[in-house]
């Protein structure tokens, strides 16, 4: 804990057997109270490694629910366990868990309700091996999103995120896609609910065992990002009404 804030780390896992141990070993258990691993039907020994590490809360999906579906299970379980701060870390070791304390303190001290680990602040992305086409796409999509949502983030596409309980109870994340676009829908919901978002510089690593989506799925994702941003703008202008912007408290009672 930090103060009286219960901190839970969630690990949305898919074929993370080779990298889970490295990720787990960098989680600061002096402040992290619980760890939840949700396995989305991995084809490797992710569950076995998680059990060896003594991760107390292991959830295994009976069928693959997708990246977004995995996160829904993560956040719902974290709230069920009484989390005040929830931090999502990919167990593929692309992001270092060593930033968990810094992200947690920003929320625990009431400065922000959301903190993102940005690969773009500084030179972490290219230095870490991000493919050039992904870097260019990231910059173009982020520019478009900032314009459409009247915001100023360095990137919307990081998978390293920390949330307060208040935010998770306020936004309707269970209405979001089960696919990769879930992340962007969540940020649009956070902006729509008038929460501020902090960013800290995050080094990143691209290597063989780190998860990544292919060019085809990246293209589908990019179109989904633009669609989400347009939905946000239309909703703000009163020209549309989309279910993802419905208040979470009206849908789930924790």
Task: Summarize this entry quickly.
It contains 9 helices and 7 strands.
What's the structural blueprint in terms of helices and strands?
Blueprint: E1 7-13, H1 20-25, E2 34-39, H2 46-53, E3 57-60, H3 66-80, E4 85-88, H4 100-108, E5 114-118, H5 124-127, H6 132-148, E6 161-164, H7 165-170, H8 182-192, E7 197-201, H9 215-237
Parallel strand pairs: 1-2, 1-4, 2-3, 5-7
Antiparallel strand pairs: 4-6, 5-6
Helix pairs in contact: 6-9, 8-9
Would you kindly provide a written description of the structure presented here, covering whatever features stand out?
It contains 9 helices and 7 strands, in the order βαβαβαβαβααβααβα. It has 254 residues and is an alpha/beta fold. The chain has one domain (7-245): Alpha-Beta Complex (Spore Coat Polysaccharide Biosynthesis Protein SpsA, Chain A). Strands 3-2-1-4-6-5-7 form a 7-stranded mixed β-sheet, sandwiched between helices. Helix 8 runs parallel beside helix 9.
Please name the fourth-level CATH homologous superfamily.
Spore Coat Polysaccharide Biosynthesis Protein SpsA, Chain A
Please state the overall shape, judged from the principal axes of the Cα atoms. Answer: globular
Known CATH architecture: Alpha-Beta Complex
Order of strands across the widest beta sheet? Answer: 3-2-1-4-6-5-7
Q: How many DSSP E strands?
A: 7
Biggest β-sheet: count, sense, barrel?
7 strands, mixed
Q: Please give the CATH class.
A: Alpha Beta
